[in-house]
Amino acid sequence: MESRMVTARTMEDEAQAASHYLRWMKKAFGRLDFYEKTHADVKEFARRHKLSVGALKLLDKHKQIGIIYVQTDNTFRRMNEEVVTLLAKAIYETVTVSTDKDAENTWTSAFEKFREAMLKCYRETLAQDAALNIAFEATARIIMESSLRKWLADLRPHQQQYRDDVVYSLSKELSGFFHHLRSKLASEVRFDDSLIVETFSRAQIFPGNLEDIQVNDLRATIRENGLPAGLYESVHKFFVSSLSTEFEGKLIELAERKPPTARRDIPKLLEGPPFTVSDPGLVKLHRILVKKAEKLISDSIPELSEVESKLKHGEKKLKTELVHGLEGINETLSRLSSSQESFSKLSTETKRKLETLEEALNRNFWSIGELKRRQAVLLEGIDNARDLRTLNPKELKDLISRGEQPARMSFTKFTEELKLIKQKHGDGLGLLSKTERDALNDTIREQVKSYRDNLKIAKRKGESTRLLEKEQELLLGLSTSGPGRLGAKRFDVDELLRRYLRISEGLIEPFCMSKKILSLFKVWPPESSALSIEGTSLTDEAKYIGEELDYRRKFYRIQVERTEPEPKDKPLLEIQENLDLREAIVENFAEVVTVLVYDIRGSTFMGKRLKNAQIESEIRNTFNVAMLKAAKRHGAFFLKDTGDGGILFFSGNSKEIYDLNYTTLHNEEKISRQFTLIDEAPELNPSARAAEKAIKCAQEMVDAAKTFVQTNFAKYPNWFRETAERSIFYEGMTYANLPPQYQRIFQIGVGIASGKPGRDLSFGMNSFGDPDITGVLIRDANFYSKARDPRRSVVLCDGATLINFLLNAERFEPTDQEEGTTALVSPERSDKFLRDEVMKWTRLKEERKGFRFSQFGIAIERIGYQLLSGEKLVGKLDLAVREENLTINKFAELLDEKGGEIKVIYEILPEKE
């Protein structure tokens, strides 16, 4: 990785971006897998329609992020909701030939205000970024569809017959309205609206997800383009059925040619088009699989018998050659007592026989090994085939199920289905066979008969026949002169196919694609309702938006009234530019080894004042036993007691190495350990939890130091005789009544440093044969352990420790988080609450000094820098390092302008209560 200008904040940001916690948030709220799949569909649509790259700029920008969040103010939301309600009402009055002048006047007055407000708001949105045009229209469309859903839900039964016409006319009006806005703004701002023109402008506005919408919901739109919705659906299902039959045939052919050998391989047969298998096809496939499984078993058993026979022969041969070889060697050795043969000759002969035996053994072992591997493969294959043979049709259906074939046409797979239809029958559908054309002719004839029957029923019931008559007229318009086969009427199949294609390409596909585009956006805040906000996913979602999206300027605001402050501009690297840095951070810090050094405060003072080596040793030993117990509970390798402190390390195998090296005996007063001789020092394994274990261990050590006085109260009269005249009370007064110098004896300084095994830390045996570690981490941790505060114990760590902790923590927040106080938020206040939550998290991330880890009860705050020049440590924390001159190397280490290594120092503090 090339050097680049970075700061400690940059490193923290990228560690957060790669953390388990943010990956969870991205999965929950960014829905990255869904976004990538849907984005690929939109990209393919744009490629086929030859749209420019700029049309997808915003969607491409979020490929590594996920769902695009857009925040609106209440005015924008309200005016888009109201205009749909008023327009729908005005269209309804027109369709029903009513003369409600008040409704017409209200709509006209409201529309003028709406037009001016939307034009101004659209202009301001484009001023932020011209690529936001699609965000503006998608957001408005989402709100409008939601409002339309409410209006449709309020229709009475007798009004339902006008629903399709109202929705169709409303969609045309709003499409024209947005076209008008874009035309007005085109002379002021340069933007690419080609994706909008090919999708939103052609698509009907209709509420709901793609999988919930049926053909009849678009009935008026389809009818206005030349076909009844029922006939259009029948034609599309005819093509899909043809493709499904073809797919099923290929599937069965593949099962015959290359059958799966285990249950787990069966779903792989379905890789390809999105079609299901019919029940007859399922029976045929089941029969093939069972037959192939039986053949596999019958073919494998003789081969298995042959392999097992060879295996027995090989094992027997191995034993024979081993016995024969050893007899020859023993015979040579028996001649050693004879003085008639030279020792050199016997030695050469023995060596030759040993080599011959070794060659024979290696040859036989290799042969037996190959036979055993083949035996294992055959046994597994036979077991899988026997399991496959017991497969019943229901189990097979479950394995290959893609859901039931829907009775009605589904839009979820429409784009892929249309693509396959055109691939098979040509772009203009001109490659149909005569049989297929006759089948389509029969489809029209059946539809004509169905409409004739339905009209009779409707007239008999006294129901409106307006729409039925209109659609019947469309059907009859497809008829041609002259009788067809068997005297039946013939229809213009070519015209039918032209209309089918026109509707598919010009209406349905843009509608499906517009719905997919809308699914990539989310309007924030969600629609108001009485919600229990605190502790729900909404607060997590607000945190995700603030910390990840808004902080990185990937959160967008559309406002009619500028009541919220504009986000501050700040220099940030684009996400794409930071990906290699993020990868370097993960590579170097996701798994580490960690060294912890602790230093007992006031130990020198204690030695001088006590002037009693025995008591001093007893106090230190008792204190260090408490530290060692904490270390062992967290899987540390307690390397050494330094007298006034100790050194330990954490790795993926530190506990195992410790147990391998030492046998430990415990009692209440002390710990004894006995060194176990080992031949070779094992390698240290890095761990994702090394920093966490060290931090938890440090916490426990600090707590043990705090309670040391109370725990050892009975020993104080003997330890500190000079304090005997003082009133020493139990129950919390003991510690306070010790002189300050003695109080500090029971404080500790803890230094924690992390890095890579081999490069930063090496484990092995020292010259005395004792386990030992070497490397920069020991020097760093020792340096950090010297930090002092007269009021308390101090725990410091380096940036590598923090980053390893961040990468693997389940949850964290910026420091100085404000506690939420509102458990129930009313509908009228929930919008403001959620907007404020986003701004709060953005501000906290921008102004943070560190992180809070509530589950561990700690905060970790950045306090300064440590400068190294080569191997020389500058023994101070420098708070004035010029961050603008920092760069990073391939090991994700910070360097100053002279190439000296810079380490960021953090303090680990108890969480504020």
Can you offer a commentary on this structure?
The chain is an alpha+beta fold and 913 residues long. It contains 31 helices and 21 strands. The strands form five sheets. Strands 6, 7, 8, 11, 14, 15, 16, 17, 18, 19, 20 and 21 form a twelve-stranded mixed sheet that branches. It has a three-stranded parallel sheet with strand order 4-1-5, with helices on both faces. Strands 2-3 form a two-stranded antiparallel sheet. A hairpin with a 4-residue loop joins strand 9 and strand 10. Mean pLDDT is 83; it is low at 483-487, 529-535, 567-577, 723-736, 819-824 and 869-880. InterPro entries: Nucleotide_cyclase.
Task: Fill in the keyword field for this structure.
31 helices, twelve-stranded mixed beta sheet, alpha+beta, Helix Hairpins, 21 strands
